[in-house]
Amino acid sequence: MTDLTPVTFTATDLDAIAGHEGRVAVIVTPDGKLEQSARRANRLTKGAVQRFVDSEGFAKVKPGQVTSFAWPVGMAAEALDVVCLARNHAVEDARKAGSALGKLRGGKAVLLAADGARRVAEVAFGLVMRDYDFSAHKTDAKDSDTGVTVMCSKPDEAEAAAAPLMAIADGAFMTRDLTNEPANVLTTTEFANRLVEMKNLGLDVEVLEEAELEKLGMRTLLSVGQGSDSPSKVVVMQWNGGETGAAPLALVGKGVVFDTGGISLKPAAGMEDMTMDMGGAGVVAGTMRALAKRKAKANIVGLVGLVENMPSGNATRPGDVVTSMKGDTVEIINTDAEGRLVLCDVMWYAQDRFEPAGMVDLATLTGAIIIGLGHEKAGVFSNNDDFCNAFLKAADTENEGAWRMPLGKAYDEQLKSRIADMKNVGGRPAGSITAAQFLQRFVKEDTPWIHLDIAGVASVKSATALAPAGATGWGVMALNRLVADGYETE
Ligand code: BES
Ligand code: MN
Ligand code: ZN
Fold first, then answer.
1. Using a 6 Å cutoff on CB, does residue 331 contact ligand 1?
2. Under CATH, what is the fold of the domain 7-152?
3. For 197-300, where are the alpha helices, taking DSSP H only?
């Protein structure tokens, strides 16, 4: 797994600002005040920092922005990074500043000399998140053991504030690694193995193999994987940090390790992007990891359906009819609408076995959601306003884009089948909504449910606020927040 940038916390020693090789970061406030370490850097550079805040250009500098001075006189560092951040900063600004520092770092040791335990923790979090680099398959990747030193007056307090954030970063890195990994490496078996490894964090992990899934009647899930040489699996991860016996929150993820479309084969151009079609399962895994790492006081169960959608002599044909675990029959019109076939069985199983207090499913489900919302926001569908609003608030707090979409009976009409209980596609109009309608047929009336269509946000072609190009880990922060704010007992 990609390691987090190491972060250490030490007591303030202003002389280190002159002697540190690598990069030194100090803070000035938007109204032009130099903090203690910035004053020292200013003295060393014979007033350069003060001239900068006095300059006309400084008026345009936004909170969270970083201005770099290269090879500053009077210092051993190769750059002095001046961070603009208010005393009572917005969390988003602190993370943005950290992200900017992470982008600039280039493997060099960073000395962040600043105060405020919460604030330096958030800056460090932003830095670590942005410093992610998926280099598992680069033969010339350099092992960098240099990290970040946070120098502040209360290092113990800062370290304590950073610990839960580093747990989240660790979870997000797992999500990103899984999502970036190519499908010849991340087979269903390899995916399951990586989840089983999380037993060492105190998670209870079970792998249900094909024979077991067959016994449970998960025929829609199995129909997706039957064309592949990789065996289909469902993995169940339990974190019981809450009250004994309290109904858990269930997280369910689509884990299609590669989506060729099956017999309804996708066009060749861009098909390589379908390595990320397990992104929903990746977020479930990363969130479980973050919750376990920070020992969340809540009961959470994560379930992922791991399959590969391949064409072959055994593959499902368009027109086939299969029976779901629930018992409803599905006419498979398009084998490329496979995600819902995986999810419906896992969702049914989750409710049947755990009677969850709430259920969130995540899936790179439809191309249509990208047409609707682009790469900025995930589509949010729900049968419960309170639950939905709690999630939207959590996503907003963490600056992860999310937008509620409608459900409704009229859309459901599009799923009618002549020969079975339903079809697996509803046609081109409102493709993301009919996909959600399909899923809702497998949600019990009294289960508060949220469906997150993350096709647009799981992986992107250019850097986002906290991630370089590629897998983003979208959702780990929001789901962690949803748990922290709504499910944790004191
Ligand atoms: N995995 C795709 C959705 C997708 C598309 C994710 C682009 C990420 C980027 C999904 O399985 C799929 O193929 N959906 C079809 C559904 C259609 C056949 C009803 C789609 O969106 O075209
Ligand atoms: Mn598909
Ligand atoms: Zn898919």
1. no
2. Leucine Aminopeptidase, subunit E; domain 1 (3.40.220)
3. 210-216, 219-225, 279-293
